[in-house]
Specification:
Length: about 400
Amino acid sequence: MAKVNVSESVLMAMSSLWLNKLRTFLTLLGIIIGVLTIIAVVSIIQGLNNYVYTKMAFYGANDFSATKFSMAIRSLKEYREQMKRKNLTLDDMRVIRSQCQSCELTGASVSTSRTVKFKNQYLKDVEIRGITYLDHMIGSVVEIERGRHIQREDENRSRYVCIIGVDVVEKLFPYLDPLGKWLKIGPHNFLVIGLGKKKGKLLGMSQDNYVRIPITAFQKLYGSRRSISINIHTSSQEQMEKAQEEVRTILRSRRHLSFNKPDDFSFRSSETFIQFYKSATTSIYFAMIAISSIALVVGGIVIMNIMLVSVTERTKEIGIRMAVGARRMDILFQFLIESATISAIGGLIGILLGFIIARIVTAATSMPSSVEPVSIFAAIFVSTSVGLFFGLYPASKASKLDPIESLRAAQ
């Protein structure tokens, strides 16, 4: 009795693929695109997930900010409503600093973008951030490589002093020690008193392209009508929750909001950022699933058509096998194995290309990527399952052929 041989069926499938290269490419294209999409997108998102949970939180675990705008604005209407909110001011910060019992440190910051110059060198789109003397200890902590932080006296006297990031150092002071030099922001000169430690890129964007100045000097230059961010550090998660309630009470009282009116300010923390990030990546996942599903279905239909052609081409072989004792189940398994093999090969090629694309994206944009073994196994499983599902009809048709009719048709 001639039973199906798995290794022989796999070799036959690969031989057929090799002999018909153009047909093979067209057969595998849908599977390759589907798996490639899954691997590339999952690799990038998994890498981002790892990065977010370890390095990318903008706030410390026990830190939060009160801001005019929420982190996620979902519509133009919502944006217009938030534009009508009152600005947060330094007076608000001072009241919170004096009245909030659960707030260990309270600071403020505000930013804009400007061109900075040193002699004949200049750098565009530099973040100019006005900060209080406490802000380097709250949220996204700034460490100093050399020099000193902005101090209380700098803030009180609105001194024109600054701390600069690595990008500014490298572009404007490639061969000089920046400490003690005068940097020009617009028409005003600022004394460089500190050099920030290198932070690197975040989602392809540099975190070192900044100049930090006292917030009072910032308001002196650019006015005090910009809403500030009030930044708060607490000792624990429990204290942070208490602090948020205290800050909410203080701000609502200062804004004369009745109990039935919503807050006209927002809180930001590492948790709100992560939730915003998750909601953003969820839509990417759904888009990936849709694209991959369409590609896999198209690939499966192509495989089914090719297998039907293969059944027609191999009618004589099927008749001979059944004449010498092969069962219908043996024929069914043979064609299913061949169909699954074709689909699995497409999956493997897709995995390789997806991995390469993820690495190219990482190299080009500095967006981290991470290929997890579970995603590779899932891709192989899905591609093989597609081959089995769409190969079922051709395999069933082959197994139901009458051996006598098959031999007669092949003569």
